[in-house]
């Protein structure tokens, strides 16, 4: 199978999340970081948005990164001219392809949409650009109409097609079937763009890849419109561990980039967020901690170091004697069976009062008080 390409869109769809507005420094920092960890392609913004966005795009282009840089455009020649003025050599041209989208935006005039696509695509190709085409709302489009649209774009010179599950309504099985049909009928590669409205963005992205898509849009932390996009860290780690696909991305820095984007976006993550959440390698429950102390693989799908995190063992309401003894031994405290049990009872009580696990300091003072 050909190498799958990550085309990260944190700086475009990620920033479209309501309430997110990266400044120039943050945009540059995120682009540099994505490049540094080996992301091969980055969608860096929408030049049509105006001066500030154009400055950010041009500044990122000027960095001379290894990654291919892509600008998002409507099927409007002025949008593409703005992208070219920023120095971009790759453009993405999006058109709506479902009846509901074409109806709302172009009064159902699909021929007009095709004409806009043909005109803007020809213009971009005449400027010597790499042109990727996006089918907005591909998942709800009539399948024959979608295929006819892409076959036309392919004939007119497009280099890649982005299959968009714009409102996140697919499941992995349907995604697989739809993408398989396209991959079988097209000569240009297919890219996946999946949204998380039903919590299936990553699963659907993987299903598309399984069906033969060769490129995938991601965003760091899954940031993006509404419930977000397929998360970079989830797609990379799932491909690595579940599909045995090494994308040559430095996964040891995934936590760092997650924190960078969390700070820049102003949105923290729930502790249980897959891959990068604070609790993904934290163990409190007695049975789990006992297992992990013998062999971490009992309750961890991969080693925390792989994403740049450390394992945490904490005591709380659900802890057991093995974990407690282990933590106390690290502080030179050895208790007999009864003493351990009475500290454990006190830990449970205090944890319930505080509604959280205990810090090491709280545990040690509890030991001092129960002796
Ligand atoms: C699914 C997605 O995520 S698509 C990407 C969405 N991202 C964004 O919208 C963020 C950036 N957008 C913007 O800054 C602005 O919307 C701009 C600069 C692109 C356009 O702004 P405005 O001129 O004020 O128009 P507005 O946003 O209100 O309406 C969209 C216009 O684009 C048209 N349009 C929408 N999609 C497309 C398309 N794919 N190709 C061509 N025209 C399109 C609409 O028909 C409408 O046209 P009209 O002004 O002639 O009626
Ligand atoms: O690139 C496109 O064509 C549209 C991308 C998008 O953000 C979406 O459909 O959700």
TrEMBL record:
Its EC number is 2.3.3.14. This protein is a Fe-Mo-cofactor biosynthetic component. The keyword Secreted does not apply. Coiled coil: none annotated. Gene3D superfamilies: 1.10.238.260, Aldolase class I (3.20.20.70). CDD domains: DRE_TIM_NifV (cd07939). One of its GO terms (biological process) is carboxylic acid metabolic process. This is Homocitrate synthase. It catalyses: acetyl-CoA + 2-oxoglutarate + H2O = (2R)-homocitrate + CoA + H(+). It comes from Nostoc cycadae WK-1. InterPro entries: AIPM/Hcit_synth_CS, Aldolase_TIM, LeuA/HCS_post-cat, NifV/FrbC, PYR_CT. GO terms for molecular function: homocitrate synthase activity. Belongs to the alpha-IPM synthase/homocitrate synthase family.
């Amino acid at each position: 199978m050909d190498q799958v390409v990550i085309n990260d869109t944190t700086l475009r769809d990620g920033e479209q999340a309501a309430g997110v507005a990266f400044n120039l420094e943050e945009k540059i920092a995120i682009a540099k970081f994505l490049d540094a960890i080996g992301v091969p392609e980055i969608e860096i913004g929408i030049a049509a948005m105006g001066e500030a966005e154009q400055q950010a795009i041009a500044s990122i282009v000027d960095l001379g990164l290894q990654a291919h840089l892509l600008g998002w455009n409507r099927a409007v020649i002025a949008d593409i001219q703005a992208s070219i003025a920023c120095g971009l050599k790759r453009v993405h041209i999006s058109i709506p392809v479902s009846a509901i989208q074409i109806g709302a935006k172009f009064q159902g005039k699909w021929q007009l949409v095709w004409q806009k696509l043909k005109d803007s695509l020809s213009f971009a190709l005449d400027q010597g650009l790499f042109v990727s085409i996006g089918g907005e709302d591909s998942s709800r489009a009539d399948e024959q109409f979608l295929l006819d649209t892409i076959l036309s774009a392919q004939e007119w010179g497009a280099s890649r097609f982005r299959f968009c599950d714009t409102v996140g309504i697919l499941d992995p099985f349907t995604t697989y079937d739809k993408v398989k049909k396209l991959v079988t009928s097209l000569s240009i590669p297919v890219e996946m763009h999946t949204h998380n409205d039903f919590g299936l963005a990553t699963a659907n992205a993987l299903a598309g890849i399984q069906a033969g898509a060769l490129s995938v849009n991601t965003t760091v932390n899954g940031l993006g419109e509404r419930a977000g996009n397929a998360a970079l860290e989830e797609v990379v780690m799932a491909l690595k561990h579940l599909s045995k696909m090494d994308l040559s991305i430095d996964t040891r820095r995934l936590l760092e980039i997650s924190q960078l984007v969390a700070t820049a976006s102003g949105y923290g993550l729930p502790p249980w967020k897959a891959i990068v959440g604070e609790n993904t390698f934290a163990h409190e429950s007695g049975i789990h901690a006992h297992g992990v102390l013998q062999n971490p693989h009992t309750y961890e799908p991969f080693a925390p170091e792989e994403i740049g995190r450390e394992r945490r063992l904490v005591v709380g309401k659900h802890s057991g004697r093995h974990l407690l003894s282990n933590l106390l031994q690290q502080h030179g405290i050895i208790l007999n069976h009864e003493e351990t049990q009475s500290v454990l009872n006190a830990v449970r009580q205090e944890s319930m009062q505080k509604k959280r696990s205990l810090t090491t300091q709280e545990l040690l003072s509890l030991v001092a008080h129960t002796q």
